[in-house]
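Following up on my earlier message about copper (II) ion. Here are the inputs again, as you asked, copied directly from the submission form:
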Amino acid sequence: MMEILSRRSLIKAIGMVGSISILPKMAFSSAVEHVVQMLNKHPDDKKKKMVFYPNLLQVNAGDSVTFESVDKGHNSASIKKMIPDGAEPWKGKINKDTTIKFDVPGFYGYICTPHGTNGMVGLIVVEGEGKLDNLKSAQKIRHRGKSKKEFKEIWKEAESAGLTS
Ligand SMILES: [Cu+2]
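Thanks, got it. Here's what our run produced:
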């Protein structure tokens, strides 16, 4: 699980563990706040423009993800039918940080509304019972433009990381 967590969310997770000793009230809460940055350029591959970083994220049910508006012009919106049954779709505002809490296990595909066809897409895997219920339907969604290739790579990565079984 650790490889999939971004460094920031890892730091946040450690920070949270640290704060438990200070704030006894939090001792029963293990929910983690993750961060996905919305960027104009991939930090490790400058040739990749318009990215969610990381574009693949594994979380536990009850965790939150903040889509951080680091660079201007981006948002995060769930892709129609690419979220589990009973989960709430979302559409963040452009240039605003958007925090989403993930309670229903499963696979969540999302897109940046202005840059969807540029391949600015991502996948969040929420661990928990029933996680695999929407795997097939999420994988079947057809994508436009560069998103098609991006999702192909993301699913491949998810598979090799053991997230699809
Ligand atoms: Cu964008």
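One observation from looking it over: The radius of gyration is 15 Å. Hope that helps, and feel free to reply on this thread.
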